[in-house]
Amino acid sequence: MLFEIINPSDPYTVVAEDKEIAAVACVVLGAGSYAFRPIDGGEFEVPLFLFGRHAEWFKATFDATTTEVIDRVMDARRAELADCLDSVLYGDAEMRARFESDTANDTPKQRYAAKLAFQKQASSLNDIGMNAYRTAVQLRGSPTDVTPPLPTSAPAHVPPAPETPITEEERAAILANLKPQQSD
Fold first, then answer.
1. What is the mean pLDDT of the chain?
2. pTM, two decimal places
3. DSSP labels for 127-170?
């Protein structure tokens, strides 16, 4: 499933294997301030949760609480979530198609270097692509599990990937960043 990441800055796209992965990736990446809108003709959309309502949406969509869905993905589908976050790419669907075509025969390291160069087009300081990459590294537990390491030619402003897995405290902080439910 191909999605546009709705955010207040640059255009980005992301690929998710299914609805559950898309929903958790959206929440982890934007803490409620991003949405995922389908590009490939799908109907499933992850809404903004700026004003709460995430509990209602997760219950209606997955018949589970937000925490239950996140825990289920973190426990049983962590690699799929990391792959989804690794797929975040600067640009719209057309730019993504061109990038994928241009890098189809590249090695993973060459593809990642091209992705970094492509990312330089972003104008926002809110580096969604690199934030997604760092989160994917954390989810995998070690930078050695990530196919391409940061190339030595990475721009100086790109921080090194963290070397520790995401902790329970970090997961709790992600959940805490979701806005509280509005009472009716």
1. 75
2. 0.71
3. -HHHHHHHHHHHHHTSGGGSSSPPPTTS-TTSPPPP-SPPPHHH
Residue type, 79: A
Tokens coding 124 = 């926002």
Q: Give how far Cα 11 sits from Cα of 8, 82, 143, 160, Å.
A: 9, 20, 27, 24
Instruction: State both tokens at 46.
Output: 């992850």
To the nearest 10°, report the CA torsion of 144, 150, 151, 157: -160
Determine the average pLDDT of the residues in 84-101: 86
12 pairs with which residues across the strands? 5, 90
- Confidence band, pLDDT 50/70/90 cuts, at residue 21: very high
User: Which H or E element spans position 115?
Assistant: helix 108-119
* Contacting residues for 54 by C-beta, under 8 A, at least 6 apart: 27, 32, 66, 178, 179, 181
Q: Residue ranges per domain, the chain? A: 2-177
Q: Give 37's strand partners.
A: 4
Mean of the pLDDT values across residues 80-109?
A: 85
Q: What is the CA radius of gyration of the chain?
A: 16
| Residue 89 token pair | 């790419």
